[in-house]
Amino acid sequence: APPIVSVSGFHRTRVNQMITLTRKRALAMRMSALLLDGQPHRDVAEVVGHLTAMQGQDFNAAKWAIATRTSGESLLAKRTAIERAFNDGQIVRSWPLRSTVHVIASQDLGWVQRATNTRFLKMIDQWLERGDFQGLDSQAFDRLQAATIEALQGGRQLTRREIFRLWESEGVAPKTGGGYEFVWALCQRGVTVLGPLGENGDPDLVLADEWIQSPRVLVGDEALHELAQRYFAGHGPATDYDLSWWSGLPVTVVRKAIGGAVAKGTLCECDVDGQTMWATPIQLDAPASTGPLHVLAAFDEHLLGYKDRTLSLDVAHARKAMTVNGIAQPTVVKAGRVVAVWKMRDGSMSTLNGERINQRDLRAAQEQIETARHWLRREAR
Length: 381
Known about the structure:
Layout: H1 9-12, E1 19-21, H2 23-33, H3 44-51, E2 53-55, H4 59-67, H5 75-87, E3 91-97, E4 100-105, H6 106-116, H7 118-130, H8 138-152, H9 160-169, H10 180-188, E5 192-197, E6 203-207, H11 208-211, H12 220-235, H13 240-247, H14 251-264, E7 268-272, E8 275-279, H15 281-285, E9 294-296, H16 301-304, H17 318-321, E10 331-334, E11 337-342, E12 349-351, H18 359-376
Parallel strand pairs: 1-7
Antiparallel strand pairs: 2-4, 3-4, 5-6, 7-8, 9-10, 10-11, 11-12
C-alpha cells in the first residue's frame, strides 16, 4: 500500500488554509487520482492499493477497471498479470466497505474491514441470537464455521459450490440463497477470504489468516486517519459525504477522520465552486490531466466512488448512468465526464443529451467497446 504522504514544510504552512480550485482543475486532479489520466501507471497491486478498494460484484468488470489503469503491452498480458496478483496473494476479493464486495490489496483488508464493519458484525450476532440467520442460530453457525475452517486448513481452497455442499453434509445448509450470506458473514468475521482463482476463473474461498501474508495493523483513530488520506489520494478532490458514502461510515466519524488527517498534514481543504472538498498536498502540486477517452465497464470507481457525481456526470443524466436500485451502467468518458452509456448485450452506445462526440472519438469508443465486450466475456485479445 502507498506510504503515508511525506509533507514538506511548504505544505505545512497551508494545511489550515482554504485552497481554491476551478471545477476544471478539480476534475483533472480527480482523473489523475483515479489513474485515468492516460499516464503510464503501476502494476496490478499498486493500482488496487492506490485506490484502496475497487467495487467488484461484477468480477470481470472489476478486472477491466484494473486493466484500464495498468501498464502493459496487451490486454492478454494484463489479464495474466491480474490473475497472477490474485494467485500470488497480492490482492483479494471480500467485503471491506458498505457490505459490498470489492477487490482490495490483501494487506489492507483486515484494517479497513475492522474500521468499517462494526455495524455488520453486530447485525450478524443479532440474527444469530434470534435464530433467524437463514434458519441458523449461534450454535449452528459455530458448527458451520468450524467445519469451514477444518475443510480449508493447510492451504486448501474450495469453490463456493463446494463449500455449500460441505454445509449441506453438516446439516447447516441455508434456507435460501445458496449460502452466499454465509460466505459474506465468514468474510466479515475475518475467517475466510476470496483469494486464488479456481478452475472457473473466480476466486476460491481460503482461510484469511493462512492466505494473507504480512497484514498491516492499524486500529482506532490511526486507521480512520489512514482511510481518509487513502480515499482522497485515490479519489480526490472529493467531499466528506463522498467518503461517507464510499466507506459506509457515518459522516460524523468521517469528519473526525478527515480532521485527524488534516492535522497530520496529509490532507488539505479546498473550495471547488463553493463546495468544500479535500485533496492531498501531493495532488495539489502535481500535474493533472483528464486523460484520453475511456470506455469503462459497470461499477467503475469513476462514478461509484462518490455520492455526488456531478463533477463527472450531468445531474439530468444520473438515472441513465445509475439506476434507482444502484445498478451502474457501462460508460464512455471524455475529458473526465460521462458522455455516453453502452450496453454489454449488443455493444450499442447512447450519447447523453447535450454531450458531443466527434467522429474520431466515436470510432475510438466503438472500437474500445468491442474490446471491452471481448474482455468481459473472457475473450481477451
